[in-house]
Amino acid sequence: MTTTNASAIPLNPDRNLAMELVRATEAAAIRAYPFIGKGDKIAADGAAVDAMRGFLATVDFSGTIVIGEGEKDNAPMLFNGEVVGTGRGPACDIAVDPIDGTSLTGAGRQNALSVIAVSDSGTMLDASSVFYMNKLVAGAEGVGVLDIRASIGDNIRALAKAKGKPVGEMSIAVLDRPRHEQLIDEIRSAGAGTRLLLDGDVAGGINAARYESRIDMCVGIGGSPEGIVTACAIKALGGFIQTMMAPKDDAEAAKGIAAGLKMDYVYTADELVSSDNTFFVATGVTDGAMLDGVRRKGPIIRTDSIILRGRSGTIRRVQADYLAERWI
After folding, report:
1. Which of 84, 89, 227, 303 is deepest in the core (most CB within 10 A)?
2. pLDDT tens-digit profile of 225-261?
3. Cβ of 92: how many Cβ atoms within 10 Å?
4. Can you say whether the dihedral through the CA atoms of 165, 167, 170, 173 is positive or negative?
5. What is the pTM (predicted TM-score) of this model?
6. Which residues contact 23 (CB under 8 A, 6 or more apart)?
7. Which distant-in-sequence residues (6+ apart) come within 8 Å of 56 by Cβ?
8. Positive or negative CA dihedral for 208, 214, 217, 222?
9. 305, 321, 240, 320: which is closest to 18 by C-alpha?
10. Element (H, E) at 21
11. What whole-number distance in Å separates Cα of residue 259 and Cα of residue 253?
């Protein structure tokens, strides 16, 4: 008979948890692989959700999903408030997006990711009552320089000066949506170039914060879940993020206020996620600027992942090969 030393079980997420979480994003990406380019984003998302839920159930932690995905479009989802894990080990807040970029996956386009973000229990803002946020994300040069309440032109010029580069060389990522037509015009009028994203603003935000990226800033209105996930990554990258709630109508604004959210208020990284003990884990579903997508190479399936840890500021790349016969 074996006994468990309770004192040996960490009370907070530790570095070993990251390698367990990446197994869940790898599984989600692999299960989505057969649906890439097949035009059925719901089927791809459903396969990824089932795989992620299955692997999270084996992890020694007690994770509460604070930010889930699926409510906006009735897609399959890991729902808000769902508890995952074995129940042993640290208590954690979780934000999940089994596929950030379901439309990209269905169309076979680039930059789809499978994503999990984790922080200490009770530290992640529950923004689920308002589906969208306005976001401004950049690298460390943006700290103390950028302000989401300022005009996009002023922010571009301020960041260009901080980075020591001409405005004409600045590249600004923004979701290609009708709601952003004026924003896109203002970016170009300021003299900067746009990098229009078809979907997946988590990748856009992270690329804006990475020092070797060609993207200098990511702006515009996107999903609230993606904003919280991005904040966890920014903690590790030492970058800059500000967000403001963007309710679609007065009724949603009232719902958000009732849930404790602030309208017309600027949320910083520390207000989105109040702990520095954060993890961001992502696996490429399709090829992108940050990660390679899932690849079938003869008898193996290869995945490409990234692990960001806020407390240590560590970035790890993980490549894994799976026997295809066990999965497909």
Report:
1. 227
2. 889 999 999 988 999 999 999 999 999 999 999 999 9
3. 28
4. positive
5. 0.86
6. 55
7. 24, 63, 84, 85
8. negative
9. 305
10. helix 15-32
11. 10
